[in-house]
Design a protein that fits this description.
The protein is of the alpha/beta class and about 725 residues long. It has 4 domains: about 50 residues, no CATH class; about 350 residues, Rossmann fold (3-Layer(aba) Sandwich), CATH 3.40.50.200; about 130 residues, 3-Layer(bba) Sandwich (Glucose Oxidase, domain 1), CATH 3.50.30.30; about 110 residues, Immunoglobulin-like, CATH 2.60.40.2310. The protein has 18 helices and 37 strands. The strands form 10 sheets. Strands 15, 16, 17, 18, 19, 20, 21 and 22 form an 8-stranded mixed sheet that branches. The chain has a 5-stranded mixed sheet with strand order 30-37-36-32-34, with no helix packed on it. Strand 9 and strand 10 form a beta hairpin. It starts with 8 loop residues before the first helix and ends in a 9-residue tail after the last strand. Required for arbuscular mycorrhiza (AM) development during AM symbiosis with AM fungi (e.g. Glomeromycota intraradices). Keywords: Apoplast, Hydrolase, Protease, Secreted, Serine protease, Signal. One of its GO terms (molecular function) is serine-type endopeptidase activity.
Length: about 725
């Protein structure tokens, strides 16, 4: 139902019940039908309705849209030092921002990462609660974990089955799966010394903003097929707005095909819109459907969408063959095997059925137990799935004592709990296979993995990280920025004595940026969500540790472009002092929504302000994003951007242009002069194409510099000659 009509939440709730009573015929029917009343950040409700009832209520005055409740999926230490947030330095953002002190980001509460030692008092503006439930009560909260709520009515109604308490899932804010604890501790976990995963990646674990407060809103569950419903998610957003969070970190999303922003079925876009206009910065994961283009999720222009990159840490593992040749793979196996040299075989040699290809990648039931017993098995996989963990189980089930898994490039290591497992590329796998074929009795010795730091060029864009351009609004560049998301060590619920685990995904990259946002917000409390996003994008790095351009990590590596990393890899120390920012107001977002097809009536209801979209139909390209994307440049287009000076009051910036190949770019004016009375200035960029062919996207950049700051925005342009067959 859009923006709240009443300031009093009780009056809003009453209006929801009255509307349902009118539809269903009685107050009793309305009470049994309603699941949630959304009454803090926006107005709306979730209720059980038949299809005909849903169609009827859609015509009621004040209703923007009626949508079905659906289920979404999750986008499932060293990383902070790698991007420059070192707790020992007095010159970085961690120190300048007081480590995020006083900021509220919205588990496993006993984790040392949520210890409140050294934490400041709970902010007086905080209105949240510590909601009780299964193995969770108010004593689990402290000055670090200041709030916790859980929402399951939407899932319970969707599954239409009893949901009981169990060790698999807790009906409370307590985390069973580990995803929430891992992401929360990455964003704002307190210092934990000697954190490690089975002896690997040992060091000081901490979140990006170790003195920020945490509030947990549990909407995702590992019940049935698992997931997070629209109804529960929207209620969590509504409560987060009410409670007073500063930042929302959302590591979940919908896959393609995406819904238009005109369509309320994208509850993440709608919920985050209301959060953003309430001053809350929303950080979202990009999705894990890469490296295919146009797979990116969470593409709304008001959220910060995060891609995943690698860091400079690897877990090298030696494979010594019987001919004394040593080859290298990677592993995070932490068991205690000590087999020495052991028989080595290739999976196809021990197949149950020689004509069945499933033995090649060691699928369950494909291997002969008699021939596999006591041996290390080499497997070849042609795709990322099934992965090494499943193949390891298959080898173990037939008595194998180790596995070497040759696989198409796929970032992120999976743990194998029982037998050693080592991932290698096709080149190393083929060299091992050649040895097996030549040797009369091939053997190998698998060493334990070792943590190696700083020896590999990084970052690289993770192979799984979803890529742009946005399939629903290609003129909005996504992702916005990239951050570490591969083999990230963070807290998890304790299992087999381990309190930390390594996970990979854009789910892990997202809280890295949420933590950095907390630091920026602490240093600049009055900055808008758009200003913070601009600071991140315009100061990001495009260069790796070896001095070359950041590379895309995929089966066919190439230099990363803005559809892989947005502005680049996050650089938090520069983001706190960006020089200039590209700001965006609520009115700007409204004009953008007009330009992509929202009706005036729908937007008027959404924000409780009368809007006339007919005057704003050409705004889309001029939304003041810290990027410019032109999906269909036929000949000439002029784009306007506005920058606000947040550096020295008197500053002069000159423009540096790197035009996309085949495109002429002209910027007017070429110099921006700021003084006491002029802190906001606009400029126009003219793009001109002489192309006689339809082409692919080409990339460039536009940078303003005053000699100290480099305020860079990425540019993507696709020149087209023909829009339809009629033009041929």
């Amino acid at each position: 139902m859009g923006q709240k009509k009443y300031n009093d939440p009780a009056t809003t709730k009453k209006s929801h019940h009255e509307m349902l009573s009118t539809l269903l015929g009685s107050k009793e029917a309305a009470k049994s039908s309603i699941l949630y009343s959304y009454r803090h950040g926006f107005s709306g409700f979730a209720a059980r309705l038949t299809e005909s009832q849903a169609e009827a209520i859609a015509d009621f005055p004040g209703v923007v849209q009626v949508i079905p409740n659906r289920i979404h999926k999750l986008h499932t230490t060293r990383s902070w030092d790698f991007i420059g947030i070192n707790h020992d330095s007095s010159t970085n953002l961690l120190t300048k921002s007081s480590m995020g002190k006083g900021t509220i980001i919205g588990v496993w509460p006993e984790s040392e990462s949520f210890n409140d030692e050294g934490m400041g008092p709970v902010p007086t503006r905080w209105k949240g609660i510590c909601q009780q439930g299964h193995r969770f009560n108010s004593t689990n909260c402290n000055k670090k974990l200041i709030g916790a709520r859980w929402f399951i009515k939407g899932l319970r109604d969707q599954l239409k089955m009893p949901i009981n308490e169990s060790d698999i899932e807790y009906l409370s804010p307590r985390d069973a799966a580990g995803h929430g604890t891992h992401t929360a501790s990455t964003a704002a976990g307190y210092y934990v010394e000697k954190a490690n995963y089975g002896g690997l990646a040992t060091g000081l674990a901490r979140g990006g903003a170790p003195l920020a407060h945490l509030a947990i809103y549990k909407v995702c569950w590992q019940i049935g097929a698992g997931g997070c419903t629209d109804a529960d998610f929207l209620k969590a957003i509504d409560k987060a707005i009410h409670d007073g969070v500063d930042i929302l970190s959302l590591s979940l999303g919908i896959g393609i095909p995406l819904y238009s922003y005109v369509d309320h079925r994208d509850s993440i876009a709608i919920g985050s819109f209301h959060a953003t206009i309430n001053g809350i910065t929303v950080v979202c994961s990009a999705g894990n459907d890469g490296p295919i283009s146009q797979t990116i999720a969470n593409t709304a222009p008001w959220v910060i969408t995060i891609a995943a990159t690698t860091i400079d840490r690897t877990f090298l593992t030696a494979i010594t063959l019987g001919n004394n040749r040593t080859l290298w793979g990677q592993s995070i196996y932490t068991g205690k095997h000590n087999h020495g040299f052991t028989g080595l075989t290739y999976s196809e040699r021990i197949a149950v059925d020689p004509n069945d290809d499933s033995a090649k990648d060691c699928q369950p039931g494909s291997l002969n137990a008699t021939m596999a017993a006591g041996k290390i098995v080499l497997c070849f996989s042609k795709s990322p799935q099934p992965g090494i963990a499943l193949a390891s189980d298959s080898v173990m089930d037939v008595g194998g004592v180790g596995i070497i898994f040759a696989q198409i490039h796929d970032d992120g290591l999976q743990s194998c709990d029982i037998i050693p497992c080592i991932k290698v590329d096709y080149e190393v796998g083929t060299q091992i296979l050649s040895y097996i074929r030549k040797a009369r009795s091939p053997t190998a010795k698998l060493s334990f993995p070792k943590t190696v730091i700083g020896k590999w060029a990084s970052p690289r864009v993770a192979s799984f990280s979803s890529r742009g351009p946005s399939s629903v609004s290609p003129a909005v560049l996504k992702p916005d920025i990239a951050a570490p998301g591969v083999d990230i060590l963070a807290a998890v619920p304790p299992s087999d004595g381990s309190r930390f685990a390594m996970k990979s995904g854009t789910s892990m990259a997202c809280p890295h940026v949420a933590g950095i946002v907390a630091l920026i917000k602490s240093a600049h409390p009055k900055w808008s969500p758009a200003a913070i996003r601009s600071a991140l994008v315009t100061t990001a790095s495009q260069v790796g540790t070896d001095g070359s351009s950041i590379a895309e990590s995929s089966p066919n590596p190439k230099a990363a472009d803005p559809f892989d990393v947005g502005g680049g890899n996050v650089n938090p120390n520069k983001a706190v002092d960006p020089g200039l920012i590209y700001n965006i107001s609520t009115d700007d977002y409204v004009e953008f929504l007009c330009s992509i097809g929202y009706s005036s009536a729908s937007i008027t209801t959404l924000i409780k302000t009368t809007i006339d979209c007919t005057k704003k139909s050409h705004f889309g390209q001029n939304l003041n994003l810290p990027s410019i994307t032109i999906p269909n440049l036929q000949k000439t287009i002029i784009v306007t951007r506005t920058v606000t000076n947040v550096g020295p009051v008197t500053s002069v910036y000159k423009v540096v242009v790197q035009a996309p190949f085949g495109i002429t770019m002209t910027v007017k004016p070429q110099t921006l002069s700021f003084n006491v009375t002029t802190q906001i200035l606009s400029f126009k960029v003219t793009f001109f194409s002489t192309s006689k062919l339809n082409g692919d996207y080409k990339f460039g950049s536009l940078t303003w510099t005053d000699g100290k700051h480099l305020v860079r925005i990425p540019i993507a342009v696709r020149a087209i000659k023909f829009e339809s067959y009629a033009d041929l």
